[in-house]
């Protein structure tokens, strides 16, 4: 049997959830009951799993391995009109790296471990064993299809499927947004004390160590920030070498751990008061 339904049944027998795709490689629209997601989805399509509607609704969530559903009267019209067979990679514990052009393929060959390769109309699908978050345009010409996504079945491909590598998982990890400290008013330090710093490196090393102490805090962050401010001021707060730039570095580290600008200012002021430093 070489029909789309036949291909789908063959894949389903091997544990690959399938669904019909219409022209344009897109799923069939929701049925009348589910139109405009009136049914609320499954639930709201936020988690992997089959659609409970008897029709091929809700895109990737319609994919199934159940032959009675694939062969059901509700799916018959969709199979007759189908232009291709789709499958849910995540439902088969797979991840597809969709390479859309020659540049993307060249990048994959230089950067990714070898695995099973399936030729596509414009590029290649690289298939790995394992699941992950799906995302489009993770690189120019590169999409990742796994959980809560579908891919077009284009044949078994060649090569041995290998384990999903960290380099592919990292493609969907967004770079953290740089933390910009909010404008703050910091009390003025006492000036004119004896400077204990033999070189500027001494101060820079102290600030770097303080940033690290705050960044590595796993609990009691409030207390860690205050104690770190206190330590910095006890060593560097009386000679006038501590500048606004140094203070901003400490505040940035604290805010990256979830502290507010107000708390940073209060902790700094309390440390000054504890040490008896003049401020105004």
Short description, anyone?
The chain is an alpha+beta fold and 280 residues long.
Write up this protein.
The protein is α+β, with helices and mostly antiparallel strands and 280 residues long. Helix content is 35%, strand content 14%. The protein contains 9 helices and 10 strands. It has helices spanning 4-13, 67-70, 73-81, 102-111, 166-169, 200-215, 221-236, 244-256, 261-275; strands at residues 18-22, 26-27, 84-87, 94-99, 116-119, 124-129, 135-139, 142-145, 151-152, 162-163. The strands form 2 sheets. Strands 4, 5, 6, 7, 8 and 10 form a 6-stranded mixed sheet that branches. The chain has a 4-stranded antiparallel sheet with strand order 2-1-3-9. The radius of gyration is 29 Å and the shape is elongated. The model has no long low-confidence stretch (mean pLDDT 84).
Q: What can be said about the biggest beta sheet?
A: 6 strands, mixed
Shape: elongated
String of helices and strands: HEEHHEEHEEEEEEHHHHH
Mean pLDDT: 84
Radius of gyration: 29 Å
Which regions contain 5 or more consecutive residues with pLDDT less than 50? none
Strand tally, please? Answer: 10
User: Helix count?
Assistant: 9
User: What would you call the structural class?
Assistant: alpha+beta
Q: Bin the helical content.
A: 25-40%
Distance between the termini: 86 Å
Please report which band the strand proportion falls in: under 5%, 5-15%, 15-25%, 25-35%, 35-45% or over 45%. 5-15%
Outline the fold blueprint:
Blueprint: H1 4-13, E1 18-22, E2 26-27, H2 67-70, H3 73-81, E3 84-87, E4 94-99, H4 102-111, E5 116-119, E6 124-129, E7 135-139, E8 142-145, E9 151-152, E10 162-163, H5 166-169, H6 200-215, H7 221-236, H8 244-256, H9 261-275
Parallel strand pairs: 6-10
Antiparallel strand pairs: 1-2, 1-3, 3-9, 4-6, 4-8, 5-6, 7-8
């Amino acid at each position: 049997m070489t029909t789309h339904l036949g291909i789908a049944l063959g894949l389903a027998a091997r544990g690959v959830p399938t669904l019909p795709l219409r022209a344009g490689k897109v799923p069939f629209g929701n049925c009348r009951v589910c139109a405009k997601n009136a049914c609320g989805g499954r639930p709201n399509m936020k988690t992997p799993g089959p659609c409970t509607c008897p029709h091929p609704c809700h895109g990737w969530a319609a994919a199934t391995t159940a032959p009675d559903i694939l062969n059901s009267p509700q799916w018959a019209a969709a199979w007759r009109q189908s232009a291709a067979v789709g499958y849910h990679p995540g439902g088969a514990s797979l991840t597809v790296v969709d390479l859309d052009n020659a540049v993307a393929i060249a990048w994959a060959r230089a950067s990714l471990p070898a695995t099973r390769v399936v030729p596509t109309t414009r590029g290649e699908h690289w298939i790995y064993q394992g699941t992950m978050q799906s995302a489009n345009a993770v690189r120019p010409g590169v999409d990742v299809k796994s959980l809560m996504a579908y891919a077009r079945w284009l044949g078994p491909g060649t090569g041995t499927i290998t384990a999903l590598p960290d380099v592919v998982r990292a493609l969907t990890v967004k770079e953290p947004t740089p933390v910009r400290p909010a404008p703050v008013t910091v009390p003025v330090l006492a000036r004119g004390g004896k400077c204990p710093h033999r070189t500027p490196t001494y101060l820079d090393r102290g600030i770097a160590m303080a940033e690290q102490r705050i960044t590595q805090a796993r609990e009691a962050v409030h207390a860690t920030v205050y104690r770190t401010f206190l330590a910095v001021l006890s060593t560097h707060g009386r000679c006038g070498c501590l500048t606004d730039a140094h203070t901003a570095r400490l505040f940035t580290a604290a805010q990256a751990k979830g502290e507010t600008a107000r708390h940073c200012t209060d902790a700094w002021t309390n440390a000054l008061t504890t040490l008896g430093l003049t401020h105004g």
